[in-house]
Amino acid sequence: MTSGAGLGEYLKRAFLYRWNLLVFIGGVAAGVQSPFPDAVIPLVMAGELAYLAGLVSVPRFRDAIDAQVYKESQPPRIQVQGAVQPLADIVNSLAPESRRRFETLRSRCLEMRAIARGIGSQQSSTTEDLSTPALDRLLWIFLRLLRSQQSIEQFLQSTSADLIRARINEAQAKLAAAPAAPSINDERFKRSLQDSVAAQEMRLDNYTRAGANAEFVRLELDRIEAKIQALAESGINRQDPDTLSSQIEGVAESVQSTETAMRELQQITGLVDQMQEPPAILEADLRKVAQ
Questions:
Q1: 291 DSSP assignment
Q2: If I label 92, which of 12, 154, 216, 287 is the partner at 20 to 30 A Cα–Cα?
Q3: d(CA 217, CA 151)
Q4: pLDDT in tens, 73-120
Q5: Are 281 and 106 in contact, with CB atoms under 8 Å apart?
Q6: Chain center to CA of 105
Q7: How far is CA 115 from each of CA 64, 103, 112, 227, rounded to the nearest angstrom?
Q8: CA dist 144 → 31, 84, 265 (Å)
Q9: Tell me: the pLDDT tens digits for 169-212?
């Protein structure tokens, strides 16, 4: 949202506000039934114009309308049938420590939202409306990163670089000891050893890349966690919609590289996302999701 909704939109929404319509229609009806409709109806119209001009001049009202227009312009969040199932699958697959980290971060978001609601301002409601989809997306990325981290760590713990190098050295030693003028059987033996060396070198390369990916995931978890906390706390600071929407757009751009890297991580973890659209994590009942 780079600009305001415009004067016409402000006037339209102010006029169509249900209580204003009720008072305006009631005033016109009373004027028509009065003994002096020619005097009463112009007074009602003048009062309505004064109301509209006064309301449109209030910055908080304009901010609220800007937020509503921005929200209405966004693509609808389609909830797929059984959309909570991928969330449940990931949450229930996490180790206790990773699960506590996710639940603590989500609780922080809910706590900040409750505090913002307690402030009782229209600005807090505006911030909440704009930030909730972005927080859901970031929490969804954070959750999948936690599972990727867990899978990579399990892979790294299942073997070691020293063990792979030992097998490479063993195969290379046997290959070096092969006869200079091999027979047919010796040639088959040599090709088998060469293929074994190549396979072990591929394993070592995968292990090295997994180690680098593990460090990347750890850094991304810290970065995304900080962004989630900053965005959740924006409601307390009562940021205006323009500033908040710019912050959300910046978040969306920053996580694109993370999502690309996560797709690459699937080659190691074997995890494939069942759903691209983030579920409504903040609205989900984790007591039902968790098993």
A1: -
A2: 216
A3: 11
A4: 655 544 444 445 678 888 888 999 999 999 999 998 888 878 777 655
A5: yes
A6: 13
A7: 19, 18, 5, 19
A8: 64, 14, 11
A9: 998 888 888 766 566 567 788 888 889 899 999 999 988 888 88
Structure confidence by residue, pLDDT tens digits, 22-61? 888 888 888 888 888 888 888 888 888 888 888 888 877 7
Residue with tokens 């301002």: 121
Whether 27 and 47 have beta carbons less than 8 Å apart is answered as yes
User: Which conformational region is residue 199 in: left (phi greater than 0), alpha (psi within -120 to 50 degrees), or beta?
Assistant: alpha
CA neighbor of 231 nearest in space, from 146, 132, 140: 132
- Distance between CA 252 and CA 246 in Å, rounded? 10
User: How many residues comprise the chain?
Assistant: 291
The single-letter code of the amino acid at 178 is A
Distances (CA, A) of 57 to 7, 52, 77, 193: 10, 9, 33, 82
DSSP secondary structure string, 34-100?
SS-HHHHHHHHHHHHHHHHHHHHT-HHHHHHHHHHHHHHHSPP----TTTHHHHHHHHHHS-HHHHH
